[in-house]
């Protein structure tokens, strides 16, 4: 099973790598999340150099099934985000 890195560990690792204060790194990560969210809401693709792209997607309303009762269930339209890896990251992982 994969291990996970939480926010505090990520901040600590980035701070150590960049020799910046952890408070600075926290501010930058918070600003990154805020800017990405604002742009995704406007249907703008967000490119994270070296990682990949965040692309807003729309899911149409549809009819699904309740797995327990097998009754039809209406699933509302929604918006989500698709993440696509860069070629370099994909190659590095494989």
The CATH topology of the largest domain: HU Protein, Chain A
The share of residues in helices is 40-55%
User: Could you list the spans in which at least 5 consecutive residues all have pLDDT below 50?
Assistant: none
Specify the biggest β-sheet.
3 strands, antiparallel
The CATH architecture of the largest domain would be Irregular
Percent in strands:
25-35%
Strand order of the largest sheet: 1-2-5
In words, what does this structure look like?
With 94 residues, the chain is an alpha+beta fold. The protein has two domains: 1-42; 43-94, IHF-like DNA-binding proteins (HU Protein, Chain A), CATH 4.10.520.10. Helix content is 41%, strand content 29%. It has helices spanning 7-18, 22-41, 87-93, and strands at residues 46-48, 52-59, 62-65, 72-75, 78-85. Strands 1-2-5 form a three-stranded antiparallel sheet. A two-stranded antiparallel sheet has the order 3-4.
């Amino acid at each position: 099973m994969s291990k996970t890195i939480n926010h505090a560990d990520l901040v600590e690792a980035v701070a150590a790598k960049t020799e910046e204060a952890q408070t600075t790194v926290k501010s930058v990560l918070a600003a990154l999340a805020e800017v990405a969210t604002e742009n995704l809401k406007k249907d703008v693709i967000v490119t994270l150099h070296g990682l990949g792209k965040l692309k807003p997607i729309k899911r149409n309303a549809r009819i699904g099934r309740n797995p327990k009762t097998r009754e039809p269930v209406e699933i509302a339209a929604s918006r989500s985000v698709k993440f696509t890896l860069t070629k370099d990251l994909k190659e590095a992982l494989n």
